[in-house]
Amino acid sequence: MSSNGFGKNISIAEVGGMGNLFPRLHKEKEYDIKEICELCDKKSAFVFGPGACPKSVMGTTGELVADVASKVTNLVNNHSSPYKTCEIDSPKFNLMANLAISEQPEPAEVGNLTVRVDGSDVPEKLWPEGNLERHYYNDVSPKTVTYEGWFAAAERIYRIDEI
What we know:
Blueprint: E1 11-16, E2 30-32, H1 33-39, E3 46-53, H2 55-58, E4 62-66, E5 71-75, E6 83-87, E7 92-102, E8 111-118, E9 144-151, E10 156-160
Pfam families: DUF1907 (PF08925)
Keywords: Hydrolase, Metal-binding, Nucleus, Zinc
GO molecular function, one term: zinc ion binding
């Protein structure tokens, strides 16, 4: 992230959605991060999260990672790696995005959750036999998986142009 991080009073904006991709691709669906902030009552805010970058901005479609300096990753043929990350000045994105919006610079309260699951104690519906064991290359315990997450609670969730 190009800022010092997100702060208090976080809002989440879920913009667009899968309906813009299926059953028909709606390439014309464009959104503006500044307008999204205004809709969420955050006039001057730090925004970060994943979305889609329109062809009208980059010349090709790409994946958008919005933060103070928006960055776009797109696939390229003549590059040292199969993708290239570019910074853009445009606040535009399309199809969908999940954005966290925060105005206050003070640190947010963050919670930690760790879950350890033993595959032998979980119902078959939730843990298909052998589905996750040894899924990760450094996993040496065949039937145990540990998940860890860090969470900052949002005060509000906005669903904008839900499809």
